[in-house]
Amino acid sequence: MERRYTEDELIASVFAPIAGQAALGLADDAALLPASSDGLVVTTDALVSGVHFFADDPPGMIARKALRVNLSDLAAKGAEPLGFLLALALPSDWTNDWLHAFASGLGEDAGAYHCPLLGGDTVATPGTLTISITALGRAPRGCFVARRGARAGDAIYVTGTIGDAALGLALRLEAVASLKARGQGGLDREPSGSPLAKQARDFLLGRYLLPQPRVALAPALREHASAAMDISDGLAGDLTKLTRVSNIGAVVELARVPLSPAAREAIAIDPTLFDVAMTGGDDYEILCCVRGDSAGFEAAARNSSISVTKIGEATADAGPPVFLDAQKNIKVFNRLSFSHF
Amino acid sequence: MERRYTEDELIASVFAPIAGQAALGLADDAALLPASSDGLVVTTDALVSGVHFFADDPPGMIARKALRVNLSDLAAKGAEPLGFLLALALPSDWTNDWLHAFASGLGEDAGAYHCPLLGGDTVATPGTLTISITALGRAPRGCFVARRGARAGDAIYVTGTIGDAALGLALRLEAVASLKARGQGGLDREPSGSPLAKQARDFLLGRYLLPQPRVALAPALREHASAAMDISDGLAGDLTKLTRVSNIGAVVELARVPLSPAAREAIAIDPTLFDVAMTGGDDYEILCCVRGDSAGFEAAARNSSISVTKIGEATADAGPPVFLDAQKNIKVFNRLSFSHF
User: Within 10 A of A304 (CB to CB), how many other CB atoms are there?
Assistant: First the structure.
């Protein structure tokens, strides 16, 4: 076996190339960021192998997902990325190649999102691969879009399309199960007569593998949103969290919730998957409330090339959101959200 | 079994009570810190069960150690704590009681060191308990004490006493081995005729269990130090890192390196333990260089009630530090530092 890097070599050859200036070449114990007239937004998210991603996912994708879920939080708060710190717990079977691929994916996104590596810690673990990232962002002029702050009458919006990642995960899990029960049905029946086109399947799998954080929407949120959060545990449950802290209610027209063509195709095959789409995790789209100038928000979103869709309205009756189906009947979900915990 | 908290309950009842104001009650996805005219210092350290602590250590102690190793980094940079973020990967056997004890220890130190919890993420892991903490500090007027910056002629100082934690770990590991080989000797021969007094043993074990970050020294370091770092991987190896990035050499008189009475007692029993003390990890003392006004530095340290000891001097010949024994002979260590990795 190729000799593996020492810790110092690993830092110098794998991580230093993707570090920002404030990281001092990763040759110090901390990074220094200059004073700023902006507020500082901080968030942390940890990803565990076998829980938040699959151990055999491409290492670059794992790294990018770990960074992107944090970028998604910054975006929802209206913050611009400043940089991130990485705590990486590596199980004993790591290789130099795996680490280079991991760092390569990480560096690609660090560059694309202007969010350099500021520091980190690499440790050995007898357990599973665990990636903890803390992202720092700046809140221009102290602007911060809280989860709390929505009021009755505010329009409720989401970005992108909802449920793709949850459907992608369902496909992925079925693929795992199908190793034991091949040909027993489910969505992933390809190649023996798949009801879901390969293109749709790949799209949904890709949406689970690699979230698209809506970083470009941050300025529009700062300008127009009364409250916002990213959707990580399912639309239904996350909207419930938002209305609870804002002490409001909400009415959502489910027919308005934006679905991708692939999700529509999957749901047409198996209508029970609609609930999965509305309550499953890993969307990393943004849920926000807008007071007053909806047209202004929509124009600002268009300018940032992020699609937004109005799905409902905040109401004065504090309580769980009311979901209406196409016939205006109340739809009750068996569970509201996905929990890895 | 008692019903365990849901993730929301866990945040509200365990962690929200120790959160700072900027954490927004831990009911948001990020924390907001106001703009400041100070620089921002950020550092991260991860601790893994079975690697950085023992799984059966008291949960409050595990939590405090995890925070303190980060506070130690801030202190070495001359930074004042602002707050921290916690990413906690919990294995499946966690209990509410364990978590309350963990948070209680964490809250105690968060209060004592004025370093409130700002945010976090709690996830399930099929692996081992992993605690990743990112600490934020402020660098008044942009002052930051880098690891790089020492020059020939600078005096080299350390805080506290060196090697206690490494000896404590040695005792602890021997205690584990002694479950299989009781009475086969080593330091921990108690109660069947211990050569190391219980008081000394307890002191060394305590120094491993709970570091004492030298937070109070930060102002003196800002004022007087040309370079500094905390000693986490052993004095010999960490001084080597400091001289390498500063492109200098160093001469250290080993007889000057401050040892606790307990460490002296242990080394008197087994002289080979001196090398363990000089090269073992987990001291979390501060190593720093001072140019010119050594008396001023010593007075400032005295005012902050932190003991400092001059152990040597930086030299112009770039290269590994030279360690001299009491007879001024060069002492060569078989290995320079401890690596968990």
Answer: 16
B55–A contact, CB cutoff 8 A: no
Measured between its terminal Cα atoms, the distance across chain B in Å is: 37
Q: Is A30 on the interface with B (CB under 8 A)?
A: yes
Asked whether residue B199 falls in the same domain as residue B122, the answer is no
pLDDT, tens digit (0-9, with 9 covering 90-100), for A12-21: 999 999 999 8
**Inter-chain touch B341–A34, beta carbons under 8 Å:** no
Helices B96-112 and B59-76, interaxial angle, to 10°?
30
Establish if A4 touches chain B: CB-CB under 8 angstroms: no
A contacts of B123 (beta carbons < 8 Å): 46-48, 51-52, 340-341
Structure tokens at B262: 């307990």
Confidence band, pLDDT 50/70/90 cuts, at residue A57: very high
8 Å CB contact between A68 and A284: yes
Q: Hey, are the CB atoms on B40 and A33 less than 8 Å from each other?
A: yes
The residues near B6 (Cβ < 8 Å, ≥ 6 apart) are: A339, A341
Residue B157 bridge partners (DSSP): B288, B310
- State whether B174 and B307 are in the same domain: yes
By residue range, what is the domain housing residue A136?
7-142
Strand A249-253 vs strand A322-324: parallel, antiparallel, or unpaired? parallel
Shortest CA distance from B144: residue in chain A: A32
Whether B273 contacts B201, CB under 8 Å: no
Is the CB of residue B214 less than 8 Å away from at least one CB of chain A?
no
- Say if residue B54 is in the same domain as residue B191: no
A147 in contact with B at a CB cutoff of 8 Å?
yes
CB–CB of A24/A31 below 8 Å? yes
Cβ A283 vs Cβ A235: under 8 Å:
yes
Which of A116, A142, A168 is the last residue before a domain boundary? A142
ipTM at complex level: 0.92
The DSSP letter of residue B19 is B
Amino acid at the residue A6: T
Q: For position A131, which CATH number holds?
A: 3.30.1330.10
Residue A231 near residue A238, CB atoms below 8 Å = yes
Reported as a single tens digit per residue, the pLDDT across B248-273 is 999 999 999 999 999 999 999 999 99
CB B252 within 8 A of CB B332: no
Question: Are residue B120 and residue B167 in the same domain, yes or no?
Answer: no
CB-CB neighbors (< 8 A) of B46 in chain A = 87-89, 121, 123, 132
* Chain A residues whose beta carbon lies within 8 Å of the beta carbon of residue B34: 39-40, 142
Number of domains in chain A: 2
Which residues of chain A lie closer than 8 angstroms to B147, CB-CB?
A: 24, 27-29
Give the integer Cα–Cα distance in Å for B53 and B63: 10
Which of A142, A175, A203 terminates a domain? The answer is A142
- Determine contact: B139 vs chain A, CB below 8 A: yes
Rounded Cα gap, residues B249 and A202, in angstroms: 57
Q: Are B212 and B160 in contact (CB under 8 A)?
A: yes
Q: Evaluate whether residue B149 is within a structural domain.
A: no
| Each residue's pLDDT tens digit, A211-260 | 999 999 999 999 999 999 999 999 999 999 999 999 999 999 999 999 99
Provide Rg for chain B, Cα atoms: 21
Domain harbouring B289, CATH code: 3.90.650.10
pLDDT tens by residue, B133-156: 999 999 998 899 999 999 999 999
Cβ of A222 under 8 Å from any chain B Cβ? no
Asked, for residue A150, whether it belongs to a domain, the answer is: no
- Residues A264 and A310 reside in one and the same domain: yes
